[in-house]
Specification:
This protein has 193 residues and is α+β, with helices and mostly antiparallel strands. It is built from 4 helices and 6 strands, in the order ααββββββαα. A 3-stranded antiparallel β-sheet has the order 1-6-3. The chain has a 3-stranded antiparallel β-sheet with strand order 2-5-4, with no helix packed on it.
């Protein structure tokens, strides 16, 4: 199934439940819903090579797509964890200056960002859209049904779809922790064990 078809499925379902809503409104809310989903779940991430030197503790990381939102981990070339933080998204601060030049790998959680696609839709991996489009639909419906003065205003509908959106985010975090393996464990033995 193509990305545009998945987005169109969300738009079509939203139009049915939101009489009078414009596609531009739905797409705008969809951006915020997907952004919240990505930030809360960290299921979209990228390993970014980060050349380090002996004179600096701050390093900018630029993902291939999206915006760096959270730092999941940093490892040195020997796969040893390195203490680091990312107070400003996209800028990693190492706890200590490296003793020698090396290439660290930063695992960074990502979220959507402008520019949008030609269809004015957020860009992110197709598999996330294919797997979680019902969750995104619930988020859009919740946000839009909470809008006062609109013909689709429904406090009960907003609460119902909001709960489904939160449950979908929780399930996405569980799936990610299990590496999408059905019935898999959410934890594993540390490497030193």
């Amino acid at each position: 199934m193509s990305r545009v078809n998945d987005f169109n499925r969300i738009l079509t379902a939203a139009r049915v439940k939101l009489p009078g809503a414009l596609d531009t409104q739905i797409k705008s809310e969809m951006f915020f819903v997907i952004d919240e989903f990505m930030k809360d779940t960290d299921i979209w991430w990228e390993d970014i090579d980060m050349p380090v030197n002996t004179t600096d503790k701050f390093y900018d990381v630029v993902p291939s797509m999206g915006l760096a939102n959270s730092l999941l981990e940093v490892r040195d070339s020997g796969d040893k964890p390195i203490s680091a933080a990312m107070e400003i998204p996209g800028t990693i601060e190492l706890q200590t200056t490296p003793a020698q030049a090396d290439t660290f790998v930063a695992k960074v959680g990502l979220t959507v960002v402008d520019p949008l696609s030609n269809e004015n839709l957020p860009q992110f991996p197709d598999w996330i859209l294919a797997q979680y489009y019902p969750v995104f639909l619930n988020g859009v419906l919740s946000r839009m049904m909470a809008t006062l003065g609109k013909p689709y205003y429904s406090p009960q509908g907003a609460v119902f779809h909001g709960k489904n959106f939160v449950a979908g985010k929780s399930q996405a975090m569980v799936n990610s922790g299990r590496k999408n393996k059905s019935g898999g464990q959410t934890w594993r033995f540390p490497k030193f064990a």
